[in-house]
Amino acid sequence: YCETFANVLGLAVKSDYRRLSAGKALMNEAEKWAKPNGASTVRLNSGFTRTDAHGFYRAIGYDNEKNQIRFMKKI
Asked: How many whole angstroms separate alpha carbon 30 and alpha carbon 6?
């Protein structure tokens, strides 16, 4: 129902290494891997409250497509 994409379920960089381009390097590698593997898009999930991370993702060219809340129920 949609084009092929790579899905990054989460990314976390230890606080000591933030602002040293570690996150950017990791995402660049994900993109480099995705392209030859048939993906035309990289999708990334980020927690609703991680606003600093959201700013980072926007700064490296990612846009959020929607706001979403995941619901779960233990049975």
From this structure: 8
Sign of the dihedral defined by the CA atoms of residues 21, 22, 28, 32, in that order? positive
Q: Is 49 helix (H, G, I), strand (E, B) or coil?
A: coil
Q: Average per-residue pLDDT in the chain? A: 91
Query: Alpha carbon of 74 to those of 36, 37, 48: distances in Å?
Result: 39, 36, 21
pLDDT band at 69 (very low <50, low <70, confident <90, very high): confident
Helix (H, G, I), strand (E, B) or coil at 56: helix
Please give the pLDDT value at position 68: 80
pTM over 0.85: no
Residue with tokens 């409250």: 49
The tokens describing 62, both together, are 């990612």
DSSP string, 9-38: ------GGGTTTTHHHHHHHHHHHHHGGGT
